[in-house]
Specification:
With 379 residues, this protein is an alpha/beta fold. The protein contains twelve helices and 13 strands. The chain has a single domain, classed as TIM Barrel. Helix 1 crosses helix 9 and helix 3 packs parallel to helix 5. Bound molecules: S-adenosylmethionine (SAM) and iron/sulfur cluster (2 copies).
Length: 379
């Protein structure tokens, strides 16, 4: 089937400057949005560039030589990222995920991780720092990342079949190098490692069972495979519902070969539904996860915020407008930490986003017209 792509809307200019309240209340970690959801998880995009051109994320025809990525001066510096991350911890954030684009392309990323690893929650706990990567540079960098303070990694891999994978990443990148990255991450103790497979019906759904078999039988249970429904993030990927394979069918297909049983969720706000293999060949509990972002919305528990490469705060993966925190960081007025923290608090308190619940409704359709690209705000 021919791939479609749709021209990009440049969201980098659509943003609002957050209001800095006159009297900044001290954050107490009890912040809640309009639907009572706390703020726990901050995803930080460290670059909008990527060395892959996955058609569902950065189609080659759109992200081509003419595409203007952000110049370095527009990116948040490591100091700015660390300052914001610290302010977010005051509001209850406990988990940081570095993403992109491809985060391992950001020069000196280990230094940022070192700085973030020094942060503490108000209770004195270190943050859970993780990273999502296409693993193209992971074999080379795993040891340095772990030494810098990274706790875990999530690797994206959409197929074991080399031809299918090369076609999906669209830059002819081989599966073997991703597997070498996973091995290196296991070897330095960045486990449990999650491997995310985006399932696109008619493109890689024949890879579901081979992927399940491979990760069940290798890495001694240290790698957990998760299947993600192909989502309508951004507008450039030309998404269509008939290309989504519902997670229920993923589970059915695996269950027919390797019987599965439902496992309890481990934490509130967890995006993956967990399934364990009934017959654990090696005696250890092995499992898979499915993330049903399209067929079973989980907005009710969504405690995630996203910080774009240039410092805009997005309250939903499907948002069309960000809140420009960089403009506060770089303002000549020299806003204090208390003022910026209060501004972030106000933004979160106004949050009403729940795009996946509204998908298909009139309100959802209106929001869908101008969504931001995932490579810009990160997954
Ligand atoms: N480049 C890194 C990578 O691929 O892991 C990090 C950024 S990428 C945007 C983060 C995650 O988003 C990846 O696991 C990717 O597969 C997923 N993703 C991107 N576009 C998607 C889509 N349309 N539907 C579902 N997942 C998507
Ligand atoms: Fe790059 Fe990740 Fe997007 Fe693929 S999914 S194009 S690897 S940012
Ligand atoms: Fe969270 Fe938005 Fe996804 Fe709902 S659609 S789960 S609010 S990111």
């Amino acid at each position: 089937m021919a791939e479609r792509s749709i021209p990009l809307i440049d969201h980098r200019h659509h943003s609002a400057r957050p209001t800095v309240p006159a009297h900044a209340a001290v954050p107490d970690g009890l912040l809640a949005d309009r639907r009572g959801r706390p703020l726990r998880d901050l995803r930080i995009s460290v670059t909008d560039r990527c060395n892959f051109r996955c058609s569902y994320c950065m189609p080659k025809e759109v992200f081509d030589k003419q595409h203007r990525f952000l110049p370095h001066s527009e990116l948040l510096s490591f100091e700015e990222i660390t300052r914001l991350a610290r302010l977010f911890t005051l509001h209850g954030v406990k988990k940081l995920r570095l993403t992109g684009g491809e985060p391992l392309l950001r020069k000196g990323l280990e230094q940022l991780i070192e700085q973030l690893a020094e942060l503490r929650t108000p209770d004195g706990e270190p943050l859970d720092i993780t990273l999502t990567t296409n693993a193209s540079l992971l074999a080379r960098k795993a040891a340095a990342l772990q030494a810098a303070g990274l706790k875990r990694v999530t690797v994206s891999l959409d197929a074991l079949d080399d031809a299918v994978f090369r076609r999906m990443n669209d830059v002819d990148f081989p599966v073997a190098d991703v597997l070498a990255g996973i091995e290196a991450a296991v070897a330095v103790g960045l486990a449990p490692i999650k491997v995310n497979m985006v399932v696109k019906r008619g493109v890689n759904d024949q890879e579901i069972v081979p992927m399940a078999r491979f990760f069940r039988d290798n890495f001694a249970g240290k790698v957990v495979l998760r299947f993600i429904e192909y989502m309508d993030v951004g507008i450039t990927n030309g998404w269509r519902m008939d290309e989504v394979l519902p997670s229920a069918q993923v589970v059915e297909r695996i269950h027919a070969v390797f019987p599965l049983r439902a496992l309890d969720p481990t934490q509130i706000g967890e995006t993956a539904e967990r399934w364990g293999y009934v017959d654990n060949a090696a005696g250890e509990q092995r499992e898979i996860g499915v993330i049903s972002s399209v067929t079973n919305a989980f907005c009710g528990d969504c405690n995630r915020a996203r910080l774009s490469t240039e410092g805009k705060l997005y309250l939903c993966l499907f948002a069309s407008r960000g809140h420009d925190l960089r403009s506060l960081l770089r303002d000549a007025a020299g806003y204090t930490d208390a003022q910026i923290a209060a501004a972030i608090g106000l933004v979160w308190q106004g949050r009403d986003d729940r795009y996946s619940e509204l998908r298909g409704s009139a309100a959802g359709e209106a929001a869908a017209a101008a969504k931001v690209e995932m490579s810009y705000i990160g997954g």
